[in-house]
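[audit] Reproducing an earlier prediction to check determinism. Same input, same settings, fresh worker. If the tokens differ from the archived copy the diff job will pick it up downstream; this log only records the rerun itself.
[audit] input (156 residues):
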Amino acid sequence: MSSAAISIAPASSAPEPGANTPYLRLGGEAGVRKLVDHFYDLMELEPRYAELRAMHPTHSEETRDKLFWFLSGWLGGPDLYSSRFGHPRLRMRHFPYAIGTKERDDWMACMVQTLNEVDMDADLRRQLHEAFAGTADWMRNKAEQGNMPAGNVVHG
């Protein structure tokens, strides 16, 4: 597995040219776009993701672009999100949405299906799964008996 780490915060400097980042291992811009489009295509087409889809804006192009821009930098590529919107403040930007265990699990099921269906090496798939799972859990903001989120609860 690559030693290139996936981090939530944008890197303070660009990766060295030729660095074996998850961004490059996924196929660069085209690979990240393919991952994002497959994820949102599943969300729109698979009935089991209907509730997850309902949490998103009606028009998904802007949503797709924002995830693409964010993941590009998060995976070690160009920091496209921060150059447009500033620091991602990922959890804060999701406060308007009540995210509990079910929402986390639905999002992860869609992303795991995406990871399994998009061509990539097994080590990268495992690395992305672990990173997405940690981030998805961290996004929870809804009070749930016996399973409180780690951060602020904004939906009681």
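[audit] rerun output stored. Observation attached for the diff report: Confidence is low (pLDDT under 50) at residues 1-5, 7-12.
[audit] end
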